[in-house]
Amino acid sequence: MQPTSSTPPRRAIALMYHALSRGQVPPGQDPHYTLDETRFRGQLQQVAEAGGACSARGWLHDGEQRPVLLTFDDGHISNYELAFPALVEHGMRADFFVNPGHVGKPGFASWAQLREMGSAGMSIQSHGYDHVYLTSLGRDALRERLHAARITIEDGIGSAVTLLAPPGGRMPAGLVGIARQCGYGRVLSSRPGRLPASRGTTVLPRLAITTAIDAHRFHAWIHGKHTSILREQLRYGSLSLAKGILGDSRYERARMLALAGRRS
User: Fold this and answer.
1) How far apart are CA 228 and CA 230, in angstroms?
2) Does the residue 2 lie in any domain?
3) What is the pLDDT of residues 132-150, one digit of tens each?
């Protein structure tokens, strides 16, 4: 039975997905962040056995007490074609963070598809306007892009947008304040960690699901195992240091070369 809002709050973890595939990764999708549909469905089954999942919107605003929050970044067409049906079959909801500048373009979900997802209980939220890293924008441009993204998505889906997930996890100084000015109540980051029992935190951590996450690590994450999550936090800290030293452009080039080397 679904816990009510009067149930004492408990800690949870938020998972961050991107695209899914059936076999070969479609052009334009990052292979490192593209999960096979069969593997994704297996993870949903694990989540169901652990107590189920809800969206961040449901956790924050509706008092849902599930141990896992499901989120998707980028708005790939596979979110509609593969993730959406699997979630419905498992009775789960998720947040889909989209860039309105990409909606309806090849490889991305359309407004009609996003509205269908929203009508089925999915949460459609903001990933910025066009996936430009927010750290590359001045304060005025940042404010304009975030406001435009929220208004455009709300017009496109017909419901409120209150959550922001920065593209690439890049969070410039002062982002929280500017996001609030633009109508966002919470920021979902790419920083690993467990969600607090309290719903008052403005910046929420998430754990990124990649092809490198095996079943053992996934099980540890959804059960809130401290050691496994701490290991991911240390890894994230090292990568953040590299990003700071190299800058976004050089870091992305180095990352793509490293991933290409692993696949060769």
Assistant:
1) 5
2) no
3) 999 999 999 999 999 999 9
Residue with tokens 């969206």: 55
Cα 159 off chain centre by: 19
Nearest one of 169, 180, 137 to 252, comparing CA atoms: 169
In degrees rounded to 5, what are phi and psi of residue 132? -70, 135
Instruction: Please report, for the domain that includes residue 159, its CATH number.
Output: 3.20.20.370
Domain housing 211: 13-226
Distance CA 65, CA 2 (A): 8
Total structural domains in the chain? Answer: 1
Taking the whole predicted model, whether its pTM rises above 0.85 is answered as yes
Is 247 part of any domain? no
Cα 1 from Cα 263, distance rounded (Å) = 44
- How do the residues of the chain divide into helix, strand and coil, expressed in percent and rounded to 5? 45, 15, 40
